[in-house]
Structures are given as C-alpha cells and as structure tokens.
Specification:
Layout: H1 6-9, E1 16-19, E2 40-42, E3 47-49, H2 58-65, E4 75-79, H3 86-93, E5 100-104, E6 125-129, E7 150-154, E8 174-180, E9 198-204, E10 221-225, E11 245-249, E12 268-272, E13 291-295, E14 314-318, E15 337-341, E16 361-365, E17 383-387, E18 392-395
Parallel strand pairs: 1-4, 4-5, 5-6, 6-7, 7-8, 8-9, 9-10, 10-11, 11-12, 12-13, 13-14, 14-15, 15-16, 16-17
Antiparallel strand pairs: 2-3, 17-18
C-alpha cells in the first residue's frame, strides 16, 4: 500500500494553521515517528508544527511545499520565525482557491513569499503582522496580488513605506496599517486605487498624507489614529465627496480644514484629542451628519449654527472646556442620544428638553460645577444618567419628566 503523508489525508476544505516555535503545543499534540512529518500532528481544524531554531528546516519546508495538493484550500495562516525556502513560497502561490492568507512573525525570508513568477491570482485577503525584520516590500508587490480586496499590515516595526506598485491593486477595498512605528510614507499614487473604501492609519510616523488621497473616488471611511506628526489634511480634502466616516484620534497637531463642510455625504465625525482650534464654521453645513463626537477637544462654545445639523441623531461631548449646553441644542429635533461627560467647566444645561421628541438616551455625568437639572424631559426617554456635584439620577425606565 502506498505510504500516504498527513497532507494527503487532509480534507481539501480544511483551514490550516501552522504555528512555529510553539513552546506549549496543544494537549492533544502527538508525535508520529512513522509519518513523513515526524514533528507534526493534525487536529480536526488546525495543523501544528513545533520546531526549534537549531533544527534543520528542510523537513518543515517539504511539508509546506506539499500544501499545493490542497486544491480547494481557501484560508491559510502561517506563523514562523524560521527561513522559508523558495519551494514552499512557490507552493503558497499555487493554491488556486486560496482567498485568505495570514503571515505572522516572518523575518528576512518574507520577500521570498512573493516570487515574481508566481502571483497569488485568487487571493482577496492578506494579513501581515509581527514581521519586525521586514524592512521593505518587493517592488512588484501590488502586481502579484491582482484580486486583492483587503490588505492589513500591523506591528511590522521596520517598514517605512509601501511600494508604488500598490496602485496596481485595482480591486483593493480596505487598507489598514497599524503600529508600524517607522512607517512614514504612503505612495504618492495612492489616489489611483479606484475601489478603496476604507483607509485606517494607526500609530504610524506619518508627517503628511499624499495629495492624491483626495482623488480616491470610492473612499467612505478614513481613520487617523495616533498620527501625531500630521498637522494638516491635504488641501483638496473636500474633494472626498463619497466620505461618510471621518475619525481623527490622538493626532494632536491636526488642524481641521476650513472647507470640511463640503463633505456633504459625511455621516460620522469623531474628533478625539485632535482639535487644537475651534471647529471651522463650515462644519454646520454637514447636513447629512448623524453622529458627532467631540472628545478632549478645544470646544468652549457650541456654535449657534449647530441647529443646521438637522439630521444629527447622536451628540457626544466629553472632556471639553465647554461652559454651557445652550438652549439651542433643543432645536436638534432628530437627536436620539445626548451624552455629555467629564466637562469640568459645564455649569448649565437647558431647563426644558421635552422638545427633543426622539431622545432615547440622556447622559450628563462628571460635570463638577453643574448644579441644575432639566425641568422636563421627553416621554421618549429610555435611559437617563444625570450626575451633578450634589445628586445622581440613573434610570432605565419610563423616562418620566423631572419636576
């Protein structure tokens, strides 16, 4: 009888996870010295490899090369600190049905995982993480992934930029780069990604964003988090007319552009420790805005024109030096959630909130100098949390008015 290897016994649809250098293998881990892969054992849903840095990697490499036999495999996750040789890398790219691929912990051998002669033709999702020794991607990186839709790069601490070939990813919908401390440059042709809908940049060393960002026709979601070197958005930022969500967090030098009001499709605006100047007057032209979050921002007074935000359903104001919640807030008749917290200088709120006929949740907490309660509340209220220096009211009940 033909001696079959473990890889021959695997069902094609099996999700495989290869974990190298596992100091604590699963309790079900067993060694079969008669098998070709004596160091490997297969479980119903996972595939474990336990090897040491001193061990010859030829056996593991041979095992990885055998993956090419799994013609229906759609998901593969590989975590390794050893060197992966060309035969194994080529095998990955030959998995004709592979849709999702995760690489973690690879060192100098990373680039060999993307041989120019073997593009990943069907790959749609790629996650690259914890590759601290990775300094650059292959120049033709984008050309090797013709079907890619989602690219996530995280905690690759020596990566400084992405190659210009990224613009070849014509189907890319989501690009997320996080916790890459030396990353300082997005490709200048970023705007050539016609399908990009989501861009998340978190904890990077970026000092600016490319002007071509404003040419992304499909961009709906933009997150800038802990990008402390960025002082301004590109001049033509208001051209992002498809943008629906803008979240800027812990980017302490950033100045919100004066023409932000031109983003007519913006639904969510969240500013957290990211506003060094008052909001520009044009922001009240964001007539599609349904959610506004101001957290640890330099807001002392809400502009009178805030009443123009007729679609606003959720308003959050936290850790801001605002002195009063003006009566005009009662004109926001679409409001369903009003949350004000940790505003140490807030001294007054509107006496009557019953005009907010759709209000479901009201929270006013940790506002030390606030002494008055609203005289009336809308019957629509479902959740009430009201803490002042002298009293605390919490209710998840009927929302009856206060008298």
């Amino acid at each position: 009888m033909e001696n079959r290897t473990y890889i021959d016994r695997l069902p094609d649809e099996l999700l495989i996870r290869i974990l190298w250098h596992s100091s604590n293998p699963p309790s079900s881990y067993k060694s079969d010295s008669d098998a070709l892969w004596s160091s490997l054992d297969l479980q119903p849903n996972y595939f474990y490899a336990n090897s040491s840095a001193e061990k010859d990697g030829s056996q593991e490499d041979k095992a990885l090369s055998s993956l090419v036999r799994l013609s229906s495999l759609t998901s593969l996750s590989v975590s390794s600190r050893t060197t992966v040789h060309g035969s194994a890398a080529f095998a990955f790219s030959q998995l004709a049905s592979l849709k999702s691929l995760e690489f973690g912990g690879f060192g100098p051998s990373f680039n060999i995982l993307f041989p120019s002669a073997a593009p990943y033709k069907s790959l749609e999702n790629l996650l690259i993480s914890y590759c601290d020794q990775l300094e650059r991607f292959p120049d033709d990186f984008g050309e090797l992934l013709p079907s890619l839709r989602n690219l996530t790069i995280r905690e690759c601490n020596n990566i400084t930029h992405l190659p210009g070939s990224l613009a070849s990813l014509s189907f890319l919908e989501s690009l997320k780069i996080s916790t890459c401390f030396l990353f300082e440059d997005l490709p200048g042709n970023l705007g050539q990604l016609p399908a990009l809908k989501t861009l998340i940049l978190d904890d990077l060393h970026l000092s600016n964003l490319p002007d071509s960002l404003c040419k992304l026709p499909s961009l709906k979601t933009l997150f800038l988090i802990h990008c402390c070197q960025i002082q301004q958005l590109p001049e033509a930022f208001s051209n992002l007319t498809s943008l629906e969500t803008l979240c800027v967090m812990h980017s302490t030098q950033l100045v919100v552009p004066e023409d932000i009001g031109e983003l007519t499709n913006l639904h969510t605006l969240a500013l957290n420790e990211s506003l060094v100047q008052p909001l520009p007057c044009s922001f009240t032209r964001l007539t599609s805005l349904t959610r506004l979050e101001l957290d640890d921002c330099w807001i002392e007074v809400l502009p009178a024109d805030i009443v123009k935000l007729t679609s606003l359903q959720e308003l959050y104001i936290h850790d801001c030096p605002i002195r009063e919640l003006p009566e005009l807030v009662t004109a926001l008749t679409s409001l369903e959630i009003l949350s004000v917290g940790s505003c140490s200088q807030l001294s007054s709120v509107p006496s009557r909130l019953d005009a907010l006929g759709r209000l479901k949740r009201l929270e006013v907490t940790k506002c030390g100098v606030l002494s008055n309660l609203p005289e009336s509340l809308p019957p629509s209220l479902e959740t009430l949390k009201f803490r002042t220096s002298s009293q605390f009211i919490s209710s998840d009940g009927t929302g009856a008015g206060i008298s």
